[in-house]
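Q: I'm writing a short explainer about Transporter substrate-binding domain-containing protein for a general audience and would like to include a description of its predicted shape. Could you first generate the structure from this sequence?
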Amino acid sequence: MMIATAVTAFGLAQATQAADPLKVGISGEPYPPFSFKAASGDWTGFEVELAREICDAMERQCEITPTGWSGIIPSLKAGRIDMIMNSMSITEKRQRVIDFTRPYYFTPGAYVAASDLSLTPPDDLDGLVMGVQAATTNATYARRALRDSGVDIRLYDQAEQVNNDLLSGRLDVILADQIAMAQFLARDEAEGFEIKATAPHHAAYGEGVGIGLRQEDDALREALNTAITAVIADGTCASLSEQYLGTDVCVDG
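A: Of course. Here's the predicted structure. Afterward I'll give you a sentence or two in plain language.
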């Protein structure tokens, strides 16, 4: 009787765990068009809506859980969130501490500067001040590939801080995600700025963007991989990408 009771209790615990909403970690700092707050105050954006579709495909509930970008991996490892879905590239360095699903999108980094600045990166960066968001693949690329270019690299906690310092003239150029920059340049205050070039393929950019997971969460990874493949195959990912980004960035295979 005691064994049967223990087995029953274990089964109930497993069922309860499976029924608990998955906490999807995103940066608490808006990163439009991937994640931002709508006028209603609710989080939305390409990755937020894609996360909801992926959870629907798994028949699981999701809770969008904002946290600071610099602490998002520690939050995952501590169990405060169940996964990271916020434009996190799959890199060798990150794979030492967390696991990833298959990639679901990829976009290159882009250099943005004033339209009247003659600039062909990386050759013309010497003597310029460049802003990059810290703890990103663009920051890794800048550190590895541009260290001998003569550029003064300034790191920022938030993407919007980088954008604002470019607009105010405290920066000459910024390096950031191409899609995010296209959205930034569509703003009225960014008139007079343009994308000068995109960064070449480099190991710093990894294999694309995937969902970050704890290394022991094998079952969740497999379920997510199946769901990601499904929402890409049925066109859901492409539709959301076109809606929020203006182009299809979803990765097949």
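A: For your explainer, you could say: The radius of gyration is 20 Å.
Q: Perfect, that's easy to follow.
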